[in-house]
């Protein structure tokens, strides 16, 4: 297997088994090191151990990142992993990023697919190469079809080929869907005068739902950012709902604002930048963030594991 890096390259690596996985990733890493290119490997822990062992002493020259932790929330991967690595290093950069693996939940997957699509718009024409492995024997057929839509180039045992279905915009829109209604949720309507009260509401409901104290603080911080955004950049008011469901405490903020930038919250704030940090912070503290965007309404749902 070979992957050719260009000024900007986003390649989906379709593999089967450990041998194909290593054949597709290790030479890519070693070629980057040979050319003095910074290399990061952000993959789930089992695959990270495989690559580290195969690299031997060369592993010390690679930034190794456990994607099952760093990328637990897919919305955190662009600002916290990919851009965080690339923005701090001049010249060509290589990254292996594996945000989708067998075991990702159905509620997480739409955010994963949108993340893969948005990579194509986040880096423009930068001198950077990203290789994304997909286990073609363990992932569902629709996941592999989405990989074709989100990667302009596909790679596998037979080499590289252009992806015939490449259409990242279509994937972003495909998963911009109404979120299932909760069976039961407590709601609080807020405006500028009740921002402090909405934070207290979220705190009490999260505590009653059994969320750990430190995670309650994170949830309240996220609610504070989202409700402030609703007041400052939306219609001036909104609704927050909190409930528990399948091992998570969920919180949803709904307002009448229109969020037109699909990369909002996925770019790190620039030094000295005024504003623009709220959604980045929400992605940083939550275990999952899902959004439904349409003209005149933004729904942001955040998940915290209990």
Instruction: Give unreliable regions as ranges.
Output: 1-5
Order of strands across the biggest sheet? 3-2-4-5-1-6-7
Going by helix content, strand content and strand pairing, the class is alpha/beta
Count the beta strands: 12
Major sheet: size, sense and barrel closure? 7 strands, mixed
Could you tell me the radius of gyration in angstroms?
20 Å
State mean pLDDT (0 to 100 scale).
91
Residue share in helix: 25-40%
First-to-last CA distance:
42 Å
Q: Report the sheet-strand fraction.
A: 25-35%
Describe the global form: elongated
Please trace the helix and strand order, writing H or E for each element. EHEHEHHEHEHEEHEHHEEHEE
Keywords: Kinase, Serine/threonine-protein kinase, Transferase
Domain MEDS: 10-152
Pfam families: HATPase_c_2, MEDS
Protein name: Anti-sigma regulatory factor (Ser/Thr protein kinase)
Task: Name a few traits of the molecule.
RsbA-like_anti_sig, disordered N terminus, 10 helices, 7-stranded mixed β-sheet, MEDS_domain, elongated, Anti-sigma-factor_SerPK, about 300 residues
């Amino acid at each position: 297997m070979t992957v050719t890096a260009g000024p900007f390259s986003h390649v989906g690596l379709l593999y089967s088994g450990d041998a194909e996985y290593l054949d597709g990733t290790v030479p890519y890493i070693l070629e980057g090191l040979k050319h003095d290119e910074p290399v990061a490997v952000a993959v789930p822990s089992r695959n990270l151990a495989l690559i580290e062992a195969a690299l031997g002493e060369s592993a010390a020259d690679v930034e190794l990142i456990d994607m099952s932790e760093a990328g637990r929330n897919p919305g955190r991967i662009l600002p916290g992993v990919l851009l965080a690595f690339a923005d701090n290093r001049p010249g060509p950069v290589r990254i292996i990023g594996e945000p989708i693996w067998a075991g990702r939940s159905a509620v997480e997957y739409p955010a994963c697919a949108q993340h893969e699509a948005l990579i194509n718009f986040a880096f423009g024409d930068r001198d950077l190469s990203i290789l994304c492995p997909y286990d073609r024997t363990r992932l569902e057929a629709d996941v592999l079809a989405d990989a074709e839509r989100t990667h302009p180039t596909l790679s596998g045992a037979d080499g590289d080929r252009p992806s015939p279905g490449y259409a990242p915009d279509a994937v972003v829109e495909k998963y911009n869907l109404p979120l299932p209604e909760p069976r039961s949720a407590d709601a609080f309507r807020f405006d500028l005068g009740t921002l402090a009260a909405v934070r207290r509401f979220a705190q009490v409901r999260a505590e009653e739902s059994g969320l750990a104290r430190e995670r309650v603080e994170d949830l309240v911080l996220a609610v504070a950012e989202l409700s402030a955004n609703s007041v400052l950049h939306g219609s001036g008011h909104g609704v927050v709902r909190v409930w528990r469901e399948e091992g998570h405490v969920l919180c949803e903020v709904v307002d009448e604002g229109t969020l037109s930038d699909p990369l909002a919250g996925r770019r790190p704030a620039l030094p000295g930048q005024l504003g623009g940090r709220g959604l980045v912070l929400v992605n940083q503290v939550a275990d999952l963030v899902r959004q439904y965007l349409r003209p005149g309404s933004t729904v942001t749902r955040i998940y915290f594991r209990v």
